[in-house]
Amino acid sequence: MNQNASRLKLFAACVYELLLLIALWMLCTWAFISLFGEATTGNKRYILQLILWMITGAYFVFCWHKSGQTLATKTWKIKLVNQQSNSLSLRHAIVRYALASALMLAGGLSLFWMLVDKDRLFLHDRLLKTRFIETKLL
Fold first, then answer.
1. Which of 34, 64, 85, 124 is least enclosed by beta carbons within 10 angstroms?
2. Could you tell me the CA-to-CA distances from 138 to 75, 77, 119, 135 in Å, in that order?
3. What is the pLDDT of residues 2-26, one digit of tens each?
4. Is the whole-model pTM more than 0.85?
């Protein structure tokens, strides 16, 4: 059985993931504003936020389903797996993204949970029976 990823690697992957997402969000926001004009108020603001959430979800769901690894988790040599140590099914990946999003809106509850969880699992991973494992060096 593979070892769960360390808190340090999980935190480092989260920081790296955020940097990648900021770049993606900036590109998407630029494209949206180029097409539709400013989006600081009204319905355009909410539409842009929904688009950014959906694009972020598409990135994560695709990576988790295809290989269990995003660019950040590949870099830190960790992988998201289900109970059988396989990549997530498409449905499981979508549910994980939705639950992780909801728990982040709840003040980052899932991140704080990982700090005290004995197995170093995020709350959404504890609930969905998924986990990040260390991968072998290539």
1. 34
2. 12, 10, 25, 9
3. 789 999 999 999 999 999 999 999 9
4. yes
